[in-house]
């Protein structure tokens, strides 16, 4: 198998998966061809929609723990650890691509599943390598032996960072891992949400191991004094819970019996019989390992199998049996200790020992990494991130993710879209709608405003127009200018500030309307009177314009902004400058109408379909963009 080990050379190692895969594929017997080898110039198929987004690293072709979704669109696959629900799809016939994993997992894939070793790429933990231009680091996941988290960094100056935890148990030591520290503020964390429910609050792994060790010590002491033979049974997975076994052997001074298959697994992992901890001789010890679910079913709640335990006890010549089921599902912690099921001469201890993070640990990890978003990987129907399951899980991390960065990215996306139309495109459109003489005479105003105690801020008509196009029509020029000045001329920040305090601005504009009529607007378009035009559209024809194509009366006096300590109101607000038809027919004087019933007019002024304000902003942005493309 290929090996990318932690060394000075590996930290600068660069891998091109397509070239490496094709070269390794040729060495396999029997010979196997791949679509990539047919033609170097043939286009790689797109990633199909059937691939769950919980397994696909954004803007890449990397799939994590999703071998059943493998296809010709990718030859780069990542396996976080050796558990069947993650490696499903791998086997002797695997020819889809390279499998990146830790060294222990690589050995298990080759020896247990017979995956062609030529296609397995082992990466040592904390080794920094480059895969198809992406930086990739594997860090310990504190799950089962060989389990890792993958850290991905995209190429380019505006690198994106993603953390895929696989299955993991958070520990405080992760906060000091230098590689993880570089991923604070990551674009997303693909999070193991197995126990993402407040009811799952179990003790530390150390406390659970201590309980098992002390209980077995007590059983040995009491059985020795009474002259009884008591069998201790510890349930484990094929891979997992080894920490408990090693601590029991070390602290209780005994060897532990395992069957042949378990011994093979332990030998591959480096815990083989030669170190004296494990044995296949059942008579050599009274502490035996048994397969999972032998002592009882654990899901959705524990149902003990006393009958099976009694069979094993009698078959092996014991008079009593004590079982241990270590799992996070065993969270039934009592004040006096962990839960125990008992019948006749058999006891079963339910030990809340988990190799997954508890609810509080999940929140601590997200708080530590402070990512822009959390992508749950467990408990999501079909891996859909827009479904109710994913949204319900993501709510548990509200306030722990970087919501400010999410908002800024959304606004920046609009900003980039709004500046897509070039100056030449605007002039061309202008010439189509107006004669060239009128177009050439349109002024472009630059305003230099100064706030007390601050440096001069240059506010251009282009900036005002761009901000105006994404705000409701009732926002006054004074408010627009004030927003730009308070944000230092940053249009994106000004829009963000507005939507955080939209209600304050609306009330301010309403008070102004009651005191005096709005300033008129002189439009150079051919759509009739300004009043009629404003009632028919929310944004001017040239909404993407880098120049202002209308002369407006502008008050250069800075607007005094209200400082509100209220929480952001997420109640859907009606926002539209289009007045209902019935409202138009009631009278021609909008001024007298606003004086008679200010609040009623305010509600109709912002009337329209109910939707969150950020959706309104997006709708306005897209409407403006589409108009500019006509």
Structural key phrases:
single chain, 7-stranded mixed β-sheet, alpha/beta, 630 residues, 5-stranded parallel β-sheet, globular
Could you characterize the architecture of this molecule?
- The protein has 630 residues and is an alpha/beta fold.
- The strands form eight sheets. It has a seven-stranded mixed sheet with strand order 2-7-8-9-10-11-21. It has a five-stranded parallel sheet with strand order 1-6-5-4-3, sandwiched between helices. It has a five-stranded mixed sheet with strand order 15-12-18-20-19, sandwiched between helices.
- Helix 15 packs parallel to helix 17 (491-500).
- The chain is globular, with a radius of gyration of 33 Å.
- The protein starts with a strand and ends with a helix.
Regions with little confidence, pLDDT below 50 for 5+ residues: 5-11, 420-424, 433-447, 449-454, 517-613
Strand order of the largest sheet: 2-7-8-9-10-11-21
Strand content: 15-25%
Shape designation: globular
Entry summary:
By secondary structure, the protein is α/β, with parallel strands linked by helices. Helices cover about 35% and strands about 15% of the residues.
SSE order and pairing:
Elements: E1 2-4, E2 14-15, H1 17-25, H2 35-38, E3 62-64, E4 76-78, H3 84-87, E5 98-101, H4 103-111, E6 120-123, E7 128-131, E8 134-140, E9 148-153, E10 161-164, H5 178-181, E11 188-191, H6 205-226, E12 230-236, H7 242-252, E13 256-257, H8 260-268, E14 278-279, E15 287-291, E16 296-297, E17 303-304, H9 306-315, E18 320-326, E19 340-343, E20 346-351, H10 359-369, E21 374-376, H11 388-394, H12 403-418, H13 423-433, H14 436-440, E22 446-450, E23 456-460, H15 461-469, H16 477-486, H17 491-500, H18 502-515, E24 521-523, H19 530-536, E25 550-552, E26 573-574, H20 581-585, H21 590-596, H22 598-605, E27 610-611, H23 613-629
Parallel strand pairs: 1-6, 2-7, 3-4, 4-5, 5-6, 10-11, 11-21, 12-15, 12-18, 13-14, 18-20
Antiparallel strand pairs: 7-8, 8-9, 9-10, 16-17, 19-20, 22-23, 24-25, 26-27
Helix pairs in contact: 6-7, 12-17, 15-16, 15-17, 16-17, 21-22
